[in-house]
User: Fold this.
Amino acid sequence: MERTNLASMEPLGKKPIQVLEKIRENLERLNEKMEVMIELQKHDKKDLQQLIPDAPLDVMTLLSMPDHLRKTAMTLCRMGRATAEDISEQTKRARAVESAYLNQLVIMGHLKKERVGRKAYFFVDRENTPGGH
Amino acid sequence: MCLFDLDFRAPSLTTLLGVEKAEHWINDYLNNASDINKVLIDLTDRIGNCGKFCVALANPGTEAIRDMSAKDRKWEMRALGRLLALKTSLLNGGGFDYLIFDTSPGLQYSSINAIVSADLILVATTFDRSDVDGTKRMLRELYDLFEKKTEVILNKVLDISSKTSKDEVQTKLKDIYQVPLLGIVPCFCDILKAQGGTIFAQEKPDHPFTRILNDMALNIDHMQ
Assistant:
């Protein structure tokens, strides 16, 4: 029994920092997902009633958005590419709130998300959106 | 300063500024078919105050007008991205202090794209009932939603010669629109007589109309 435990702990003994980093990364992702779920409950999922993959973030879409999402989307439009923290500095709202709104906009198909290391960057994918004439 | 004609339905700056020929248009830039530096026409030699003055003209050809009116949402989304990019390329790297987007009134895509890209919105209106109603609606349903700093210019106002009548107009306007007033431009017969054949402010620098424009420009300068 003791031997088994030691064997299972061996990788942790070899690279404890990497393992802890991995755990932290997973916890952050889990946290982001929970933030989205909390936001969805707050707004009764009204914002996500019509999900369109790769829905263009044009000005008419911005106009039709609820105020809280429009503010986040407008700020990202101006900045081009940003993290939730960058957006929160502009909007003066909490980072967790902006993270939830940004993830909501990703789910709605208006934004794209890319991870670089531990940071999650959000952007409007204007060039790769199909169509447009 | 750089002036953009974003009224694609009725482009007028080509005629107003008397530009004989343009190789590239702002339409081409938004279509990703031309670099902005090829579109800009340098008219610095036309003005005498040592400032740099460039224009980006909209194509006044019928085919171009038709083409621009048939653009879809995805194209408009990309056009917004390209307009936003101008702020980086021309204000930060192009040596310009101001970019002015001249748009048509109403809810056209090109106008709203310009509003979203702008830092300050100037709404020119008159006391005509249809203008008042339309402007009120635009302020409430558009500019407020985008949380943009907006100011109103009241144009073609009759009889504001006395201070009392000017104060009355200002109070009335603030009650109606609930936004700051940048300036009041009286109705000048001299401007109508000029028939748009010249740049009036340039031709008559001492005219009251030109002085009002200068005051408004100074006010904008002080907002920074």
User: Anything to note?
Assistant: The first strand of chain B starts at residue 2 and ends at 5. Chain B is about 45% helix and 15% strand. Residues 188-224 of chain B form one domain.
